[in-house]
């Protein structure tokens, strides 16, 4: 069985967010999917199978995502990685429609080699800053928002880019503040460097201490920063050690996420 490791939201190997990608004839039982994701041990492993013509309705492929600990409802970078594999292997041409737990998600290849994902925009709800979150994060929040059920994070605005880059949170303490984890963000110190805002994402509740580049988080970051900066088109830098850029375009209840991907490992999974 063929398995690829793809670095997503980057144009070079060993950066961005790595994801396992397996194209299957059908989904095996959930325990096997979870075992493979645990063995791959990246933030997410994506499993996709082609839907028979006429059976998929609005979708071409069924797609599921697993962290080493659990299945998740939405994942941007592993969707980008899967679309990259489908296009570079010649398995699928043109836009690909994925049937997922978050509805039909469309990935469209662009002439410059990047891929644009069409995802639902996260419904942001301003909330009171929870008591103790500043101590757990190691920085004083300015504002806080709930990102809704699909994303499942607490979005925290911090004072500046330097503060976001310097975070060293207490991950065990952070786990109590949201379903999945914390998105920490701030306005870019110098937009001339090619990004409008920065972020880091900590997801201890799903087995990911820090996610390198998180597409789903940008469905919340896009409306958050578009409102503040007055523009629908922005570029986010996720300032993890691996780092990566996500171009965002806000379209009301949909957010377009654009990035590149690179296959770094193409091998064989020996276990049945």
TrEMBL record:
GO terms for cellular component: cytoplasm. GO terms for molecular function: isomerase activity. InterPro entries: Phenazine_PhzF-like. Transmembrane segments: none annotated. Keywords: Isomerase. Coiled coil: none annotated. The active site is at residue 44. Gene3D superfamilies: Diaminopimelate Epimerase, Chain A, domain 1. The keyword ATP-binding does not apply. The keyword RNA-binding does not apply. It comes from the Bacteria. Belongs to the PhzF family. This is Oxidoreductase.
